[in-house]
Design brief:
about 140 residues, mainly beta, OB fold (Dihydrolipoamide Acetyltransferase, E2P), 4-stranded mixed beta sheet, about 30% strand, ribosomal protein
Length: about 140
């Protein structure tokens, strides 16, 4: 049926069918050029800011070097030094003056700074106040 259809179309419009040859092998170019869209980075930085609400276990900061430090109800997880909330609550970021012990392992990150005034940024998660919505079993 295909040859008949081709003959009728060609007779009606006098068209020419061309065959297109596709590539039989993949191109040998750069692998990054074959990816979909632009290459994305690791997306370091803060995920939640001061004043926002954090659920338990959510990531607050992803960092390579200790730029932000854990405060109240915040823990460090993984080798990327990411900070995670231990309890649900409101996030606060504070800047506090500290005295660095030169023998401390963290002191190597502060070698190029003037050591009399060193400020660190701390992430804190303050839980929401829990109201007395319960009753003792003896009172029921």
């Amino acid at each position: 049926m295909l040859p008949n259809l081709r003959n009728t179309l060609c007779a009606a419009r006098s068209c020419v069918f061309e065959q297109v040859r596709n590539a039989s092998a993949r191109s040998k170019g750069n692998r990054a050029c074959r990816q979909d869209g632009a290459q994305k980075g690791q997306e370091y930085g803060y995920k939640l800011r001061s004043g926002q609400f954090a659920k338990q276990g959510v990531m607050l900061v992803k960092q390579r070097l200790p730029r932000f430090f854990p405060g109240l109800n915040v823990e460090v997880r993984g080798e990327k030094l990411s900070l995670h909330a231990m309890v649900p609550g409101k996030v606060f970021v504070t800047r506090e003056k500290v005295n660095i012990n030169p023998e401390c392992a963290v002191a190597k990150h502060f070698d190029d700074r003037y050591m009399d005034a060193v400020y660190k940024k701390y992430y804190h998660v303050v839980p929401e106040p829990q109201y007395n919505k319960f009753q003792l079993i003896a009172n029921i």
